[in-house]
Amino acid sequence: MKKIYYILLSLILLIPAAASAAGAASMSVPSSAENGSNVTAKVTVSGVAAWNVKITGSGATSGCSSVFADVTIDAKNTTKTFSVTCRATKEGTITFTATGDITSQDGANSAVSITKNVNIVKARERDTESRLSSLTIENKEIDFDKDTTNYTVEVDYKVESLNVNANALSDKARVTINNPEYLKFGENTITVVVTSESGAEKVYTINVLKKEPVLDEEDCVVPETPECTDINCECNNTPYIITIVLESIVLVSLLGYIIYDKKIKK
């Protein structure tokens, strides 16, 4: 019986202790970073209704520091994450510290004191490769060479646009294709810009010549495209003009006859 009593008493004593437990705080940082890069420290507080935390970075950096202080609107416990970012300025060590205090919804308060180190190493050389490994143009064959940056293709007047695909030689490079939405008659330019990891650029240029529509000598053939205007559609309209004139003469003659006939009958 005494054994059961002591067990129950222990449980009763543990309940208020658990209810008044304070919140917790932790910090995460990378183990290492390159010189010249940005380094971020994150502090997470959990089971808190109020907090006052200062995060500071010092050492192989120009320094960074921020204070985070607030309370929850409903005075209930929550979890929050705060971060500070320093830029590494030399090889060595950046030391991040988090200090302050946190308070849970039941008023339990605890101090925050955390220190973490980040090893700053020599920056590796950035990849300077800015060439393409492949370049393809829809329905066109080109003799592609990664060191050749200028290409020319011709398209029919009915072609409105061209799909261009390009892949960089380096997986660290970025490819940007500047392709007009609509090809106009005459000369058009498509550029493919390859930017290496180091920032070096190489531009590949595709000159696209869109042919003018072929117009016959008698009829004005207007292609089904918004680019066709009166200027684009120069042709011999003489047959149409003659036809219109002859039809006008016949119409006027007919009207004249009708009027003359009515006058005679009167």
Concise description?
The chain has helices at 2-19, 238-265; strands at residues 24-28, 32-34, 38-48, 50-59, 64-71, 78-87, 92-103, 109-121, 132-137, 150-155, 164-168, 174-178, 186-195, 201-210. It is of the alpha+beta class and 266 residues long.
What attributes characterize this protein structure?
single chain, Immunoglobulin-like, five-stranded mixed beta sheet, four-stranded mixed beta sheet, 14 strands, disordered N terminus
What does this structure look like?
By secondary structure, this protein is an alpha+beta fold. Among the domains are: 22-121, Immunoglobulins (Immunoglobulin-like); 132-210, Immunoglobulin-like (Sandwich). The protein contains 2 helices and 14 strands. The strands form 4 sheets. A 5-stranded mixed sheet has the order 2-8-7-4-5, with no helix packed on it. A 4-stranded mixed sheet has the order 10-14-13-12, with no helix packed on it. It has a 3-stranded antiparallel sheet with strand order 1-3-6, with no helix packed on it. 15% of the residues are buried.
